[in-house]
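Final paragraph of the annual report: two paired records, presented back to back.
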Amino acid sequence: MCGIAGFFDFNLKSTQTHLEQMVNTMNHRGPDDKGVEIYKNSFASVGLGQARLSIIDLSEAGHQPMNYKHFSIVFNGEIYNYQEIREELIKEGHIFKSECDTEVILQAFEKWGIESIHKFIGMFAFAIYDSVLNEITIVRDRAGAKPFYYYWNKGLFLFGSELKALHPHPDFEKKIDQNAVQLYFSQVHHGYIPAPHTIFENTYKLKPGHLIKLNLVNRSLKIESYWEVSTFYKLPKLKIDYESAKIILHHTIKSACEYRMVSDVPVGIFLSGGYDSAAVAAMLQTGRSNKLKTFTIGFEEGNSEAPQAKQTADYLGTDHHEFICTTTEAQQIIPTLPYYFDEPFADSSAIPTMLVSKLARQTVTVALSADAGDEVFGGYSNYIRLNSYLSQMNRIPNYLKPLAKKIGLFASTVIPDNSYILKHKIEGISKALQADDLNQAADLTGFMNSLPKKYHEKLFQNYLRKIDTSNQLDITGFHNSIETAMAIDYQMYLQNDILTKVDRATMSVSLEGREPLLDHRIIEFAAQLPIEYKLDGNTGKKILKDIVHKYIPKELMDRPKRGFTLPIYSWLKKDLSFLIDEYLNNIAVAKSGLFNVDFVEAQVKEFKSGKLHYTTFIWKMLMFQMWYDCWINSKN
């Protein structure tokens, strides 16, 4: 694990000093070693750099950039099955100088070319420079566990594991992309900028499961997809009985968990009160004589899963570590969020994720998390609601469905103009009722979780009527609308929110986060299972829960899902009210030139008057303004 950075400069202006400055922005990602190298090339200045967090092969043999024949690499992540690939290459006559997975990638690439990535089980983002072909190959893992940012403009290609790595380069232009800002504010519940977009123009995130080929001779850049989750949802469903499916899935999850224990440094597990982390902890602790370390964070106020996590830990017999956080300790994280997240990011659960990472880092260097269970196995309540909704729609006679259009028109005339979100939702239901194909109604989940056009028109000074939606999923060809909704959540919410949150939070304290449930073997198998194996009436994650019950009694696990619910409203009304006064006053809001100051002022007044439902907007606006102050206003 590490932070990588580099440049390919056709203007021949970039220097080693620039590269060193880029790498130094990511000290938190790689405190153990640093390396930079400038390569001679007649077409462009080529620079590769890395800040290393040593996990496998702690010796100097794992130093990067690593060179092998005419290939050079910088690599962030882990290839968990590198030992098997290494043995395969040794049988083919390859000789290795180190015990690390970086060298395995290089030699695999030399042997099999780009096809080698299909052999990798892991999380990765790497750049390989071929000095003979004058070509760069950049690859990001299938799920997007590891980030990759790049800037491509005026003959300059910059890249980094974090957006902040690009800032030190003197030719990096920080021009805010209004399209991205509108995407950030477009979600009802969360605020993030989805790949391939970033907050800046000409700057992008490489999408998960994609690769870049950059030719230094003709300056061509080509982006290709090599893995898409939708591919597996659209395949014919496996003809397999439930018990057999459960056995195969159990074996695959256990294999994924064991792979992620491969390390030359201590490993622990994030444990909540839910099924996902219980599955990981149970499969790894059962049969082991040594107690695995598990970590949970709790709060003095707000919902906390700490008691349920302790129950699970006690039953499994782990070495459990719990930290009950005060309001003051949680609030102290907030000013650091804009720096570590680089872009406006408004998921408040970043706060407990950073706190539990800090707790774990006291005793381990690697922590296993259990994200993706909800998206892969159908755990979110909105899937159950959508299932129920579609069942009811099926009962409506076709001759009554034209009335849906009239309902939408009636709502638009009766509901007050300032209730544009309610209006938007009723219009969404009306559209779904009119759908010829009920599977199209899955798009309702995206529609209902987005903010209406009128909201944007009021918020922005210069509203872009048409925004770039290249991040959207092709929803044709799915077997049912529930799986369409799951795939949308996988591609949007999981990849752009949850995985961003976990990467930045863990890396902020030099902790490597690993995700067993993101193993592509699990995702591919689960996507091809019949939907009833995952969703059973009012129960989500059916097959995963039945596997967990082999380890932990059902009566111990069946408890309400709570998650981390922070008292953001009360914080902003009381202890943190000064942040609203500092960042959301008219002068501060006007600085970016993006927003309608009067509209924001009205929203703040409504919030201060005690209207709870304005909290999400206020938090999103606050995170944007704090980011702007950190990265645009700041002289540093």
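The closing record of the year follows.
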Amino acid sequence: MLKTTPVKDQGQSALCWVYAMLATIESERLMQGDSIHLSPDYIARLYLAQQARSHYLGHGRPAITLRGTAPMLIRLLQTYGAMPYDSYPERQPRANYNVLERKLQQTTRHATSLSQLQQRVDNLLDESVGVMPADQVYMLGATYTPLSFANSVCRADEYQALTSFTHHPFGRSIALELPDNRMGDLFLNLPLDTLINRIDRSLRNGHPVCWEGDISNDGFSFAQGKALVNPRLHISQTLRQHLFEQRQTTDDHCMALIGIVRNRKGRKLYVAKNSWGTNNPFGGLIYMNENYLRQNTICVVMRQKED
């Protein structure tokens, strides 16, 4: 199993894509010998502030939301930078981001100028999430800006998003039709078997994979730490496509895949690091079988070069 930072709890928020992609980056750097632990709230706060400005200037549109997809996190790192977890840790009790989204929309409706809005938004975010740290990062004797720190842990071209659906040609990068693909990110479309092989190769070579997919089915249980589809079934490309088109397979959740193990029957299981806290039999981890992966994966993000 790959090295990881502690399992976190996203609380009342839709920030699984932030937690999972940051966990993927952290494990990647830890496997390279770095010591790194990144703040989810830093990204969430700055993204909310940006949306509040856009909501105000756009006369109430678009809606303020923290829903997103894993590739968006890499874009936001290039925009806002990154902050170590210890510099901007999760406040206890956790901020309720669902409530915070609504409060920010109310704030934009009552503001009379951009400067007034900015002050009110900053005050609300300070109170709910925590006062922002200094705009410098000190790490191993070096000083970074948040942007240069982000680039040191995750280059813009370091990761690639992959998917597998037949309504687009294989071998092309496509803007996958997901409600949460708000920035129109591109995904390389691959045959299902090729996608699974890429995931396996990445994990076996010591590189984590950010997984995004469906957890609305009966096979997923956080309480039991499992994500299983009957191993006797044949999960084909055709079946997978049918479930997606019938909206039975939906884009629900993100986790970081951090290893491959075998159960007592010798069947392959993928170890997923979740972000719902540690209150399950495996300290917050989920064990996912290959059929679950084949059926319920919407997309993955992994390092492009597995050197």
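The mean pLDDT is 96. This concludes the annual technical report; the extension proposal builds directly on these records.
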